[in-house]
Amino acid sequence: MKMPEEIMVYCPFCKKRSKHKVKVYKKGKTRSVARGQKRHEEKGRGYTSKIAGKVTVYKQAKNPTVMLTCSVCKKKHPKTIGTRTKKVLELKKV
C-alpha cells in the first residue's frame, strides 16, 4: 500500500486543514525500568506458571499507524490506516 509523503489533513491543534508530513510509526524499545513492565514481570515471578488474566487473542493483521507532523504548528498526531490490512505501508514521493 503506497501513501504520499505529504497529505492535506485536519490538524486538531490548529483546528483547520493543513499540509502534514507523513512518517510510518514504529514502536520503541521496551524499558525494563518502566513501572508497567516491572508489574508485569512481578506477576510471572514465584510459584505461578502463568499470568492470570484473559487469554490472548491474536489479530489477523495489525492496523498500520502513521505519525502526521503539521507544517504550520509542527505538532504531531497519529492516524490509523484502514481497519485490517495485511499490506505493508510505504511512502512515495509526489
**Rg, Cα atoms, Å:** 19 Å
Low-confidence stretches: none
DSSP summary: helix tally: 1
CATH-defined architecture of the domain at 1-26 and 58-89: Roll
As a percent range, the share of helical residues equals 10-25%
In percent, how much strand structure appears in the residues? 25-35%
| CATH class placement of the domain at 1-26 and 58-89 | Alpha Beta
Measured between the Cα atoms of the first and last residue, the distance is: 15 Å
Q: What shape does the CA trace take? A: elongated
Keywords, separated by commas or semicolons:
single chain; 94 residues; mainly beta; Nuclear Transport Factor 2, Chain: A; four-stranded antiparallel sheet; 34% strand; elongated
Describe the structure.
- The protein has a domain at 1-26 and 58-89: Nuclear Transport Factor 2, Chain: A, CATH 3.10.450.
- Helix content is 11%, strand content 34%.
- The chain contains 1 helix and 6 strands, in the order βββαβββ.
- The two termini are 15 Å apart.
- The model has no long low-confidence stretch (mean pLDDT 85).
